[in-house]
């Protein structure tokens, strides 16, 4: 780069971003990003999804300031148990006289923890296995894909249950269990994309420049697989949240008194008829966040992976 | 510069065996432009791909600059021989800027002074520095092909393999690219091997050429002979005739193909 | 003069995109009798969109307007969907560039021809079968019976394109629109396909619109040529008078092709005058 700071041209930032003749790597990249953002914001539902996800982030980050009560220590068990939603307790209280609103706020941290950890464990594994397998082909492909098939053949929740049973209940083990069961589809997607890319001319061209195999895979194949993978991971988030909640519901995920949404639904089960809010409120939170990720994923797909959109 | 002896290329085995190239031999002198002409399935592109290692050499020898090529090819080979592909829409990485595309070969071979070299390469193919940070989708077909040529030339190779470099382009753009290739050959003393189905394009760029059919060499001839209609082979004649456009009276020559 | 088969006046095709409106065809007018008309232009000249618009095959965001767009006196703009459907594939047919994408991969070639025929003619199956076989013979298939039961992936490009022509001509259309029918084929094969097309067109007295980028090919095959540039017709001339083309674009297109006959270095390139696009 020439070192000169990218100065906005007279016609403003927009024109600078959309310039057909970018002056630097950064301008080219930002221009691309801006175009993507523009087409993303054309889809109101996707923006709503993004809003929900941002809200989740915000709530998790500032839980200490938002939550009016402690999520763990309840109030007076004689007078404040199972109260319906009111001005004092916005979403009511549970059987331990804890404020459900505060518990949901703090529970968002656990949800976020699960999502982030699962995606940073499962996505790279899937990407690596898929691209290596697809690009190298031959026996490497056969071995890696059979391993993938084995993982794919297990029902996710059952395998997660088995792992948790072996490792002991707890949110960390639940995360590991979910991550281990969620990479195979990513490996499949990455492999399918790689198979298409592998024989294209631009890969042949870089081969003819003498590029090494790792250089081709990481510099040329991975960047093209990554966008469809991001879309898929985002769409899978809902499933991951549900699996985490399911494990919590079965008592194998987060342990009491931690305010995990699935576990909260599980306790509310006993009061479903008379004190519906105990189960419904965390259920609603699970629903809203899952929906948010699905909408965001759909929007991202339109931007990042136009082929698959229609 | 380039010596091909009894080249054979076979894909697959058993019932799936395809003899793509059968006993093809030719030599190309330094600074010469040599054409391979034929229809689809004639094996002309496979010869090119076998030279640069994208297709296996099943039999015969390929010598570049007097040395037999190794499998896999070494870095010296890639500095000597480079290729330009047919479809400029497929041969550039869609997510890489021109800058990234051109700096890749320099990085692989540990070349210094990338910025100056990139600007120089752009200039050589008739594009200004304003193209440096564009993505392929911001370029026209002709501009893309120029970038592909710049990429092939940035390592200063001696031999350029051209696989139908203009067949995906409009006629007027084809003329520009052909002129550019003509110029570059003279300025950089390059050796070309041009693969094309278009006799006129081959005759325009090359001095000598080999007509191929079904993986075999039909005849080796010169552009001069094509022009004066001296091609002896019947198949070559039929190609010449077909390249002249449609003729209303049915003729013997075009009835050959089936 | 005979009543024209197709009348096109001020045809416009617009695409409303997020980034603005693009006018792919900008006021094209021509009339077609039972003759061979060539439409030539480079990519982006609007030649394919012109052909598609006549058939009502403009892809979704596109909008087609015309002062007059009539086939055999029937206004195609006001005609009912039903009339249009009957017309399309019945009286007007289209042959596309690549048979690989226009033939249904899971049906045999014979079945597809029969289906095309029965969609427009109420006949029994046996009769349709005979007609399909006759059609395969008409496109010079060596063994019509065998080709009849083959799937599209089992035939070569040239055979696929001939099958496509058979399918398009089985309904005895009055107008055939051929969009780059031979550019995916080898030269010798494409000459053969053109010869078949030529015979069928003159035998049956059809009108033909031949859309291509290849000026040399079009002028040797057609009676009349429209040269398109940036969505407009810049020149219309008799094919045999191509050498006397007036417009600098047509002249440039003619000159920039390398020929076997004369060796010109460097090739004259085309300097695009912005005023051509106005």
Automatic annotation (TrEMBL), chain A:
This is D-ala-D-ala transporter subunit. It comes from Microvirga vignae. The chain crosses the membrane at residues 45-67, 110-137, 157-181, 237-256, 276-297. InterPro entries: BP-dependent_transpt_permease, MetI-like, MetI-like_sf, OppC_N. It comes from the Bacteria. CDD domains: TM_PBP2. Residues 108-297 form the ABC transmembrane type-1 domain. Belongs to the binding-protein-dependent transport system permease family. PANTHER family: D,D-DIPEPTIDE TRANSPORT SYSTEM PERMEASE PROTEIN DDPC-RELATED, OLIGOPEPTIDE TRANSPORT SYSTEM PERMEASE PROTEIN APPC. One of its GO terms (cellular component) is plasma membrane. It is found in: Cell membrane. GO terms for biological process: peptide transport; protein transport; transmembrane transport. It is a multi-pass membrane protein. Keywords: Cell membrane, Membrane, Peptide transport, Protein transport, Transmembrane, Transmembrane helix, Transport.
């Amino acid at each position: 780069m020439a070192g000169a700071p990218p100065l906005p041209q007279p016609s403003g930032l927009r024109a600078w971003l959309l310039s057909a003749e970018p002056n630097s790597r950064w301008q080219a990249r930002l221009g691309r990003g801006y175009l993507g953002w523009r087409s993303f914001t054309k889809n109101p539902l996707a923006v709503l999804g993004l809003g929900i996800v941002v809200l989740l982030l915000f709530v998790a980050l500032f839980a200490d300031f938002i939550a009016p009560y402690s999520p763990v220590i309840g109030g007076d068990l004689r007078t404040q148990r199972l109260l319906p939603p009111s001005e004092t307790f916005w979403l009511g209280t549970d059987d331990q006289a804890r404020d459900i609103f505060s518990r949901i706020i703090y529970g968002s941290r656990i949800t976020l923890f699960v999502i982030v950890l699962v995606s940073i464990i499962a996505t790279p594994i899937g990407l690596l296995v898929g691209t290596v397998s697809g690009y190298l082909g031959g026996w490497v492909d056969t071995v890696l894909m059979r391993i993938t098939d084995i993982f794919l053949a297990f029902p996710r929740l059952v395998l997660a249950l088995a792992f948790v049973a072996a490792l002991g209940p707890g949110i960390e083990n639940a995360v590991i269990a979910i991550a281990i069961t969620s990479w195979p589809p990513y490996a499949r997607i990455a492999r399918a994309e790689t198979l298409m890319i592998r024989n294209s001319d631009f890969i042949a061209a870089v081969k003819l420049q003498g590029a090494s195999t790792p250089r081709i895979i990481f510099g040329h194949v991975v960047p093209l697989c990554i966008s469809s993978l991001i879309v898929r991971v985002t769409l899978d988030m809902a499933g991951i949240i549900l699996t985490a909640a399911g494990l919590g519901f079965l008592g194998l995920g987060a342990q009491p008194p931690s305010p995990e949404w699935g576990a909260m639904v599980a306790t509310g089960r006993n009061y479903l008829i008379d004190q519906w809010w105990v189960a419904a409120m965390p259920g609603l939170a699970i629903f809203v966040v899952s929906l948010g990720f699905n909408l965001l994923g759909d929007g991202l797909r339109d931007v990042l992976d136009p082929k698959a959109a229609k | 510069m380039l010596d091909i002896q009894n080249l054979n290329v076979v894909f697959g085995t058993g019932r799936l065996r395809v003899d793509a190239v059968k006993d093809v031999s030719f030599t190309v002198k330094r600074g010469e432009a040599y054409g391979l002409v034929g229809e689809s399935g004639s094996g002309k592109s496979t010869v090119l791909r076998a030279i640069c290692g994208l297709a296996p050499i099943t039999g015969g020898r390929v010598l570049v600059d007097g040395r037999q090529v190794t499998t896999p090819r070494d870095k010296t080979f890639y500095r000597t021989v480079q290729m330009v592909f047919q479809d400029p829409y497929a041969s550039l990485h869609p997510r890489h800027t021109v800058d990234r595309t051109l700096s890749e070969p320099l990085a692989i071979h540990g070349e210094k002074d990338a910025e100056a070299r990139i600007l120089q390469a752009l200039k050589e193919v008739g594009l200004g520095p304003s193209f440096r940070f564009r993505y392929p989708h911001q370029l026209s077909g002709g501009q893309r092909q120029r970038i592909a040529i710049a990429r092939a030339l940035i390592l200063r190779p001696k031999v350029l393999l051209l696989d139908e470099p203009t067949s995906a382009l409009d006629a007027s753009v084809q003329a520009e690219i052909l002129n550019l290739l003509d110029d570059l050959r003279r300025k950089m003393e390059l050796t070309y091997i041009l693969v094309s189905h278009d006799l006129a394009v081959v005759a325009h760029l090359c001095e000598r050429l080999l007509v191929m059919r079904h993986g075999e060499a039909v005849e080796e001839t010169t552009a001069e002979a094509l022009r004066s209609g001296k091609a002896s082979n019947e198949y070559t004649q039929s190609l010449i005739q077909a390249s002249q456009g449609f003729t209303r009276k049915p003729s013997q020559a075009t009835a050959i193909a089936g | 003069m005979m009543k024209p088969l197709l009348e096109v006046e001020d045809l416009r095709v617009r695409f409303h995109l997020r980034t603005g409106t693009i006018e792919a065809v900008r006021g094209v007018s021509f009339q077609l009798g039972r003759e061979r008309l060539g439409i030539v232009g480079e990519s982006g000249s609007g030649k394919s969109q012109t052909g598609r618009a006549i058939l009502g095959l403009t892809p979704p965001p596109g909008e087609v307007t015309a002062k007059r767009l009539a086939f055999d006196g029937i206004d195609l703009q006001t005609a009912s969907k039903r009339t249009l459907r009957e017309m399309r594939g019945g009286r007007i047919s289209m042959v596309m560039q690549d048979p690989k994408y226009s033939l249904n991969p899971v049906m045999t070639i014979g079945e597809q021809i029969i289906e095309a025929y029965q969609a427009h003619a109420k006949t029994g199956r046996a009769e349709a079968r005979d007609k399909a076989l006759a059609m395969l013979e008409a496109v010079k298939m060596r063994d019509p019976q065998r080709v009849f039961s083959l799937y599209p992936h089992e035939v070569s490009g040239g055979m696929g394109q001939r099958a496509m022509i058979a399918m398009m001509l089985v309904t005895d259309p009055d107008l055939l629109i051929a969009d780059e029918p031979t550019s995916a084929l080898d030269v010798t094969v494409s000459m053969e396909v053109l010869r078949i097309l030529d015979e069928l067109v003159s035998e049956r007295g059809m009108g033909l619109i031949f859309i291509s980028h290849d000026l040399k090919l079009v002028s040797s095959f057609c009676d009349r040529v429209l040269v398109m540039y940036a969505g407009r017709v810049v020149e219309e001339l008799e094919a045999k008078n191509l050498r006397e083309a007036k417009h600098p674009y047509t002249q440039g297109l003619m000159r920039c092709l390398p020929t076997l006959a004369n060796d010109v270095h460097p090739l004259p390139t085309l300097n695009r005058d912005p005023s051509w696009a106005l």
